[in-house]
Amino acid sequence: MRVYNFAAGPATMPLAVLDEARSELSDWRGSGMSVMEVSHRSKDFVQVARESEARMRRLMAVPEGYRVLFLQGGATGQFAAIPMNLTGPGDRVSYVNTGSWSAKAVAEARRYATVDVVADEAATNYTTVPDQDTLRPADGAAYLHYTPNETIGGVEFGYIPEVGDVPLVADMSSTIMSRPVEISRFGLIYAGAQKNLGPAGLCVVLVRDDLIRRSRERTPSVWDYRTMAAQESMLNTPPTFAWYLLGLTLKWLEDQGGLDAMAERNRTKAGRLYAAIDGSDFYANPVAESARSWMNVPFLLADPALEPVFLQQAQEAGLTNLEGHRSVGGLRASLYNAMPPEGVEALIDFMKEFERSHA
Amino acid sequence: MRVYNFAAGPATMPLAVLDEARSELSDWRGSGMSVMEVSHRSKDFVQVARESEARMRRLMAVPEGYRVLFLQGGATGQFAAIPMNLTGPGDRVSYVNTGSWSAKAVAEARRYATVDVVADEAATNYTTVPDQDTLRPADGAAYLHYTPNETIGGVEFGYIPEVGDVPLVADMSSTIMSRPVEISRFGLIYAGAQKNLGPAGLCVVLVRDDLIRRSRERTPSVWDYRTMAAQESMLNTPPTFAWYLLGLTLKWLEDQGGLDAMAERNRTKAGRLYAAIDGSDFYANPVAESARSWMNVPFLLADPALEPVFLQQAQEAGLTNLEGHRSVGGLRASLYNAMPPEGVEALIDFMKEFERSHA
């Protein structure tokens, strides 16, 4: 029996995608082989790769002048690859710190460039995002980096920072394709696939053409944007099965009505859960209302001692992976694209019943 | 209907592995989730990771004092990561050039260190390997790198180079676990998984403890051996599904009788095919007998104009991906662990029949 899986990533995937993958796992398109067993340079796989790029461009309404790269090493790899590709020695870069993931991006970037943390929410214990009017890159910044959604804190930007001519770089791992976004506002968007796009092992990078002209000496070839763009992300063997699953996931997204439909569904899912939390003294969410995440909803019990009981009974009710991140504790429900509205309703019903029996 | 797939990589996988993966693709171990959908830090997945490492150590008889890392970015990523981790600025390193893959490793290493190519088979058109008595690292080399098997040329070392105290580094992507190897002779062994170990997207690195003490500034964290060893290869989200499939493949290898059984099977498979080629004027293999690969058998037709006909009829007979690498042309049969002896016999029968009708 399938459960409702609220994991933060690797995360639940559409059952239709898993079913399709299963149906052809050892005989792909009548080839007598798995898609895992064919060359990345075969006609059929190149078609998978190109179709998935085209579908991504269509779904996200990517304007002309951007490259789409499919890389290995995850978003954490890009924490290094971005300054390697977008800065020269001695360059300054601006970072916004809104939680655990932006802090990790800062730490890795410091190894390659001088980092100015131009806004820092540590003082609020990462319960909100910087005010739109105050957020500015430092003078001479090669780019400004921010994390539109923090998966651990459940904090999300309700706006796209205005940074003038400075390229805006966004780690969209946990929010990509959860709603339409104006791509032209960004210089570079990157995202590990394992939350909204498919399984772990693939990282998507959308980068504006003019930013891939310069790349630093000693950038590893597999992360050199110029090289990888010229090779259609096939300088070396890509993670073909992950790429194929990403393609199936994008097809599923189109079948669901695209990003407008996703936005509506995700807004509703999160809104229903926050309303349930706010409507009770038994549950609480610490994040400022304007900065609440649609994707990751952390919550606390008035009596923390009940957490293990909550998790155990939720598990028995088919609601899994609701523990908060090990660094912060508490509870957390991740509501990525593939979490159906019925899963959120089942969680809300469970929470109400749990409150009734334990309040 | 399954075919016999002679692709060089991504390559054929054991049908038993694909069947097991399929049977639990959307409900892993009764969890109601796919293994792709669970956290890499969950108890169940950590067990998969640890079991696969233990199984690899057992199968390969890895002695104490080596770390096993599971990294992203492929062997091509390691072309950069190895000098990053094993050299300091100004260091010299020795490389052996026996074909396309060692040449790529040389080109990438030159970006990080001074490379001495201490043996080069370009003059033989890559049809043999250096003589055992002449192969030596240059004075002061931080390591000596070689490619035990070249997938394109079909050239393989019949011996392990003797390099004294200099760490020996081997790209075993196409030969790992195809037979027992004396691990203690090596400082570092690395291998992309997509030939003998599973699907693309995972790279295994075995490295001797004393070599991970030094790592160069600005080594990306996801490729820093020390960091990754300390984090059990989970600094960031690993490619979990690829890792799981690697685990199933290792289990299959144990069921087959381990590496001694594999060596016997692989020796026989290759021997049968070379005998068929050598026993005919219609087919030819250009490689020196002592340097012939068990894993990749390139061959030519006396009349190259017949190649497209050969490939077409082979495909119709259920024998696929027999074209040579695009850089060299001709034909090639890759005979990794997962290619059953029956596949090789079917190929030999087809070749004989093709010769009868076209000679």
Describe this structure in words.
- By secondary structure, the first copy, chain A, is of the alpha/beta class.
- Chain A folds into two domains: 4-13 and 257-358, Aspartate Aminotransferase, domain 1 (Alpha-Beta Complex), CATH 3.90.1150.10; 16-255, Aspartate Aminotransferase, domain 2, CATH 3.40.640.
- Helix content of chain A is 34%, strand content 17%.
- Chain A is built from nine helices and 14 strands.
- Chain A has helices spanning 15-23, 43-60, 74-86, 100-109, 225-230, 240-255, 258-278, 307-316, 341-358, and strands spanning 4-5, 66-71, 92-97, 114-120, 141-146, 149-150, 155-156, 168-171, 188-192, 203-208, 283-284, 296-301, 319-320, 331-334.
- In chain A, strands 2-10-9-8-5-3-4 form a seven-stranded mixed β-sheet.
- In chain A, strand 6 (149-150) and strand 7 form a beta hairpin.
- The longest helix of chain A is centred in the last third of the chain and has 21 residues, at 258-278.
- Chain A is globular and about 60 Å long.
- The model of chain A has no long low-confidence stretch (mean pLDDT 96).
Tell me the count of domains of chain A: 2
C-alpha-based Rg of chain A, rounded: 21 Å
* Secondary structure tally, helices of chain A: 9
What is the structural class of chain A?
alpha/beta
- Largest interface, with Cβ-Cβ < 8 Å? A-B, 67 and 67 residues
- Average pLDDT over all residues of chain A: 96
Tell me the name of the CATH class of the largest domain in chain A.
Alpha Beta
Task: Please estimate the helix content of chain A.
Answer: 25-40%
* Apparent shape of chain A: globular
Corresponding CATH superfamily of the largest domain in chain A: Type I PLP-dependent aspartate aminotransferase-like (Major domain)
CATH architecture of the largest domain in chain A: 3-Layer(aba) Sandwich
Q: How much strand content do the residues of chain A show? A: 15-25%
Order of neighbouring strands in the sheet with most strands of chain A: 2-10-9-8-5-3-4
H-E string of chain A: EHHEHEHEEEEEEEHHHEEHEEH
- Low-confidence segments of chain A, given as residue ranges, are none
Oligomeric form: homodimer
Kindly, what is the distance between the CA atoms of the first and last residues of chain A, rounded to a whole number of angstroms? 30 Å
Q: What name is given to the CATH topology of the largest domain in chain A?
A: Aspartate Aminotransferase, domain 2
